[in-house]
């Protein structure tokens, strides 16, 4: 399945897929809440408040990055060099947007935030590798 992909494309697809899972399902913020009616743990993913806009934007950019690789390698579409060159700034944008999200609300960070930032860095690295490779593989 991955034999058609270059090294940068593999990194974008694998790390991007895991990043999408982290953004959608892993808790990014976790707080213990106690009140009059009882107590519990409040868990929020990256797509939920606080700062849901940044999480959603990072999610959509990552979907676009992964979709570009999958569509050009597993369909009859030709590789568009302009889209390949956009992989690097898109990956860096994901890192920047998620850093903005975390800097805006630093309280009660959970495992998803740390995992997500590491995966975002991997996606950005894959995008940089793709731009360096230039989409030369067909």
Describe this structure in words.
By secondary structure, this protein is mainly alpha-helical. Helix content is 64%, strand content 10%. The protein has a two-stranded antiparallel sheet. A hairpin with a 2-residue loop joins strand 1 and strand 2. The protein is elongated and about 60 Å long.
Strand order of the largest sheet: 1-2
CATH fold group: Butyryl-CoA Dehydrogenase, subunit A, domain 3
* Quaternary form: single chain
Radius of gyration: 17 Å
Series of secondary-structure elements, N-terminal to C-terminal: HEEHHHH
Number of domains: 1
Kindly name the structural category.
Answer: mainly alpha
Count of alpha/pi helices:
5
Looking at the structure, what is the overall shape? elongated
Instruction: Calculate the mean pLDDT score and round it.
Output: 91
**CATH class categorisation:** Mainly Alpha
Helical content band: 55-70%
* Number of E strands: 2
Summarize the structure in short:
This protein has five helices and two strands.
Task: List its salient traits.
Butyryl-CoA Dehydrogenase, subunit A, domain 3; mainly alpha; 64% helix; two-stranded antiparallel ribbon; 10% strand; 5 helices; 138 residues
Q: Mind sketching the topology for me?
A:
Blueprint: H1 7-25, E1 29-35, E2 38-44, H2 52-74, H3 81-85, H4 87-104, H5 111-133
Antiparallel strand pairs: 1-2
Helix pairs in contact: 1-2, 1-5, 2-4, 4-5
């Amino acid at each position: 399945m991955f034999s058609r992909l270059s090294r940068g494309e593999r990194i974008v697809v694998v790390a991007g897929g895991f990043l999408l899972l982290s953004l959608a399902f892993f808790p990014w913020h976790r707080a213990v809440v106690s009140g009059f009616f009882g107590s519990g743990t409040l868990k929020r993913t990256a797509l939920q408040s606080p700062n849901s806009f940044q999480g959603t934007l990072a999610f959509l950019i990552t979907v676009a990055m992964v979709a570009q690789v999958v569509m050009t390698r597993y369909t009859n579409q030709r590789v568009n060099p302009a889209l390949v060159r956009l992989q690097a700034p898109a990956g860096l944008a994901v890192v920047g947007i998620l850093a903005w999200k975390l800097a805006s609300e630093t309280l009660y960070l959970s495992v998803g935030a740390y995992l997500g930032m590491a995966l975002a860095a991997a996606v950005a690295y894959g995008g940089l590798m793709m731009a360096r490779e230039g989409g030369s593989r067909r």
